[in-house]
């Protein structure tokens, strides 16, 4: 399988490019930000995503979706990134669906139709501290009747307050640091004894702190197997990490393109600033970094879709590299724009903020570089 | 099974049966490679057997047409061959500037006669080539070159000097940029091929900081070159040279054969006690694996005629800077052991010599700064001269 988009994928890309440009460009993002929208995204846009088939992109055809893979999801995510289009796509249709695909028929039948139709939003309750540390998950799920009682706290639950269901990672056994003993639960938003405190983040997206004070769920809420949730969580995380990396590449590419255009328009000292070699070399270096990041992301997606055992390593590489390259893109972007790069009116700063949030989502570049080292045995 | 699956199975079986075990060990350094030539020096019988068997199959140049010594494989088939060779750890059977650089230029610009003659020799490893590009006064500004070929009717008489000619002292023939019109900088250069055994050719190895001499000064004193040994049109050698530079940059970038293996993994104990070095190693592994993916994507795109034509410049920049970083970290991890230049334990100073050798990577074939210039202008379309 050659490492570039097939004809079908190239067509999907054209569709996604047109769609985001027309329906969810940065102006759309600004509109929802400025109206102080409590969801942080437009439900109408989410319905439009559904009409395009995007919401069910990873859901099998026989269950109403498009039955496509991570490469295709990544194509949509790159355009979301490039246009800063606010949507629950990554949490719901990519990471969330990847976990639910391992769930029994009851849960799939319950949640897939709403996701496909653009009526349902999922939240991911994974992180418990300010940094993404999956193995340190300590939240308790104790057996109670024919179900479980959840106690603990989660944070950085993106769009948690708008979510119809939260996928919650908790301990049914073992202790923090162990992979054994984790279980994933599908928890209804209306569950009793659950508290939600939503915060607006630096990039104007919404994320919640969620408290679980003995929230009761029945046995049917378990996604996958009790105590063996690590495998399902890994599927969720790999899809989420590769997806976040794809979105980051879009953010970085958007920032870079905007910056390169600016270098061709802005004049100082009587000439275009893009004529200065000091800036040319930095722009060319940035291009190289972004190209390599894009290749790493595509390779990770290919390996996931092929079911390769080594996909997890490449996903870590992809998230680390995309995080590092895109961070460079937005920093160089703001600096090369000079004064106007600091203004709210200009879009480049919005890219910097979005990068900051995506960098943390599913683990930052250091976290993933550390995983790469561990997977190499050091 | 599909045709490609069949091809994969057959390829694997053939490689397993025909690749000698010694040829499945990684190369120790550049000199460990098989370079072929008129008077070849093989490091082992296995090396010769491996080259001959692969050449017989057309697999030294798998995607060249059969008439020119290749196997006429499709891009998908050559990729399978590369993958299967990588799985078994098979060495490249033949290292050759003929394969990497001159061959692609001949395929594009050569006459049919030239292709049949030279390409077959290259594919079989019969002639070892070197490249006459840089001159003492023409490094990054290559087009200012002065070596002159005077028109004498049915031949040229070439006078001048080249420098940084890789392995000129071991090469049989040279592909050489020669000025044939002093009045036009770009359209006054021709691309000539000639025998290094010609009267008037002499070479002098240059001792480098690595202690090795992979490069030479090459002198031409009234060298006769017949007129049929020009590639492309008279005075249009710069077009050939630029095309070939793309392939040279791709080769130096390490695309397709980026270093395998993690440096950090070789120094596990040290990694546990030196967190700052470990962080550098982790980032190196990230970039190495990301660049391997980039190499795969780049080659796939190129074989399919996709991708930006100036992309080899980006590959060369990234690959060589990465390789320098890798060897800096090898030295840092090696500590005082890695300082040993002449000792048995250090295998003759393998680490420091390799480290110093990598410093040339971002100079030879176009400096990193020139690569960035090209990317800025041709890919990003930034303004200015």
Automatic annotation (TrEMBL), chain A:
Gene Ontology MF, one: flavin adenine dinucleotide binding
Pfam families tied to this protein: Acyl-CoA_dh_1, Acyl-CoA_dh_M, Acyl-CoA_dh_N
Gene3D superfamilies: Acyl-CoA dehydrogenase/oxidase, N-terminal domain, Butyryl-CoA Dehydrogenase, subunit A, domain 2, Butyryl-CoA Dehydrogenase, subunit A, domain 3
Keyword Oxidoreductase found: yes
Domain Acyl-CoA dehydrogenase/oxidase C-terminal: 228-374
Cofactors (names): FAD
Name listed for the protein in its UniProt record: Acyl-CoA dehydrogenase
Family label: Belongs to the acyl-CoA dehydrogenase family.
Domain Acyl-CoA dehydrogenase/oxidase N-terminal: 6-119
UniProtKB keywords: FAD, Flavoprotein, Oxidoreductase
Domain Acyl-CoA oxidase/dehydrogenase middle, residue spans: 134-200
Superkingdom field: Bacteria
InterPro entries: Acyl-CoA_Oxase/DH_mid-dom (IPR006091), Acyl-CoA_Oxase/DH_mid-dom_sf (IPR046373), AcylCo_DH-like_C (IPR036250), AcylCo_DH/oxidase_C (IPR009075), AcylCoA_DH/ox_N (IPR013786), AcylCoA_DH/ox_N_sf (IPR037069), AcylCoA_DH/oxidase_NM_dom_sf (IPR009100)
Signal peptide start-end: none
TrEMBL record, chain B:
Names of required cofactors: FAD
Domain Acyl-CoA dehydrogenase/oxidase C-terminal: 235-380
Domain Acyl-CoA oxidase/dehydrogenase middle: start-end pairs: 130-223
Keyword check for Lyase: no
Domain Acyl-CoA dehydrogenase/oxidase N-terminal: 4-126
GO cellular component annotations of the record: plasma membrane
One Gene Ontology MF term: oxidoreductase activity, acting on the CH-CH group of donors
Keywords: FAD, Flavoprotein, Oxidoreductase
Pfam families assigned to the protein according to its UniProt record, in alphabetical order: Acyl-CoA_dh_1 (PF00441), Acyl-CoA_dh_M (PF02770), Acyl-CoA_dh_N (PF02771)
Domain of life according to the entry: Bacteria
Family: Belongs to the acyl-CoA dehydrogenase family.
InterPro entries: Acyl-CoA_Oxase/DH_mid-dom (IPR006091), Acyl-CoA_Oxase/DH_mid-dom_sf (IPR046373), AcylCo_DH-like_C (IPR036250), AcylCo_DH/oxidase_C (IPR009075), AcylCoA_DH/ox_N (IPR013786), AcylCoA_DH/ox_N_sf (IPR037069), AcylCoA_DH/oxidase_NM_dom_sf (IPR009100), Mycobact_Acyl-CoA_DH (IPR052161)
Name of this chain's protein: Acyl-CoA dehydrogenase
């Amino acid at each position: 399988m050659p490492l570039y988009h097939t004809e079908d994928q190239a067509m999907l890309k054209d569709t996604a490019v047109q769609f985001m440009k027309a329906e969810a460009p940065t102006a759309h993002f600004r509109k929802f930000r400025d109206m102080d929208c409590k969801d942080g995204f437009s439900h109408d846009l989410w319905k439009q995503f559904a009409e395009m088939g995007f919401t069910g992109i990873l859901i099998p055809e026989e269950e109403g979706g498009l039955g496509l893979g991570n490469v295709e999801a990544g194509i949509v995510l790159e355009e979301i990134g490039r246009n800063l289009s606010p949507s629950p796509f990554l949490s719901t249709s990519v990471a969330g669906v990847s976990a639910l695909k391992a769930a029994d028929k009851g849960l799939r039948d319950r949640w897939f139709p709403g996701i496909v139709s653009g009526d349902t939003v999922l939240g991911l309750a994974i992180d418990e501290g300010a940094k993404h540390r999956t193995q340190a998950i300590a939240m308790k799920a104790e057996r109670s009747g024919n179900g479980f009682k959840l106690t603990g706290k989660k944070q950085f639950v993106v769009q948690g307050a708008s979510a119809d269901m939260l996928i919650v990672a908790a301990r049914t056994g073992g202790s923090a640091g162990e992979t054994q003993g984790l279980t994933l639960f599908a928890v209804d938003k209306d569950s009793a004894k659950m508290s939600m405190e939503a915060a607006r983040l630096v990039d104007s997206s919404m994320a919640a702190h969620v408290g679980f004070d003995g929230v009761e769920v029945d046995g049917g809420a378990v996604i996958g197997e009790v105590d063996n949730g690590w495998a399902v969580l890994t599927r969720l995380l790999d899809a989420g990490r590769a997806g976040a990396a794809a979105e980051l590449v879009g953010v970085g590419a958007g920032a870079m393109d905007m910056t390169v255009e600016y270098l061709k328009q802005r004049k100082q000292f009587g000439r275009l600033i893009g004529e200065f070699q000091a800036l040319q070399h930095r722009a060319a270096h940035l291009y190289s970094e972004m190209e390599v990041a894009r290749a790493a992301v595509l390779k990770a997606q290919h390996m996931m879709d092929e079911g390769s055992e080594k996909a997890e390593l490449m996903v870590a590489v992809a998230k680390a590299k995309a995080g590092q390259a895109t961070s460079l893109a937005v920093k160089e972007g703001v600096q090369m724009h000079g004064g106007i790069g600091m203004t709210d009116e200009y879009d480049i700063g919005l890219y910097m903020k979005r990068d900051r949030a995506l960098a943390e989502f599913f683990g930052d570049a250091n976290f993933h570089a550390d995983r790469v080292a561990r997977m190499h045995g050091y | 099974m599909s045709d490609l699956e069949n091809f994969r199975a057959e390829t694997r079986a053939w490689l397993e049966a025909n690749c000698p075990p010694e040829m499945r060990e990684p190369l120790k350094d550049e000199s460990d490679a098989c370079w072929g030539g008129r008077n070849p020096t093989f490091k082992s019988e296995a090396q010769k057997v491996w080259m001959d068997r692969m050449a017989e199959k057309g697999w030294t140049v798998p995607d060249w047409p059969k008439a020119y010594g290749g196997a006429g494989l499709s891009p998908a088939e050559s990729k399978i061959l590369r993958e299967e060779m990588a799985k078994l750890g098979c060495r490249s059977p033949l290292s050759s500037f003929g394969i990497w650089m001159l061959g692609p230029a001949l395929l594009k610009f050569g006459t049919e006669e030239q292709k049949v003659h030279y390409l077959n020799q290259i594919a079989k490893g019969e002639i070892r080539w070197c490249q006459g590009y840089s001159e003492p006064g023409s490094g990054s500004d290559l087009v200012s070159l002065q070596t002159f070929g005077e028109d004498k009717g049915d031949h040229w008489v070439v006078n001048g000097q080249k420098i940084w000619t890789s392995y000129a002292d071991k090469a049989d023939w040279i592909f050489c940029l020669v000025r044939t019109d002093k009045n036009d900088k770009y359209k006054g250069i021709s691309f000539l091929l000639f025998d290094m055994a010609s009267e008037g050719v002499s070479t002098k190895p240059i001792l480098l900081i690595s202690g090795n001499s992979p490069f030479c000064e090459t002198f031409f004193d009234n060298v006769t070159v017949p007129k049929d040994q020009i590639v492309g049109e008279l005075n249009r050698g710069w077009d050939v040279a630029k095309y070939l530079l793309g392939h040279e940059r791709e080769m130096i970038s390490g695309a397709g054969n980026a270093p395998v293996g993690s440096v950090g993994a070789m120094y596990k104990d040290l990694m546990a006690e030196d967190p700052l070095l470990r962080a550098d190693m982790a980032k190196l592994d990230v970039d190495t694996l990301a660049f391997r993916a980039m190499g795969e994507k780049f080659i796939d795109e190129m074989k399919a005629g996709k991708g930006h034509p100036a992309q080899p410049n980006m590959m060369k920049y990234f690959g060589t800077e990465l390789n320098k970083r890798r060897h800096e970290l090898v030295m840092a991890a090696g500590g005082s052991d890695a300082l040993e230049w002449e000792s048995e334990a250090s295998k003759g100073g393998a680490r420091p010599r390799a480290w110093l050798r990598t410093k040339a990577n971002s100079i030879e074939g176009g400096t990193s700064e020139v690569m960035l210039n090209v990317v800025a202008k041709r890919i990003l379309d930034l303004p200015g001269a």
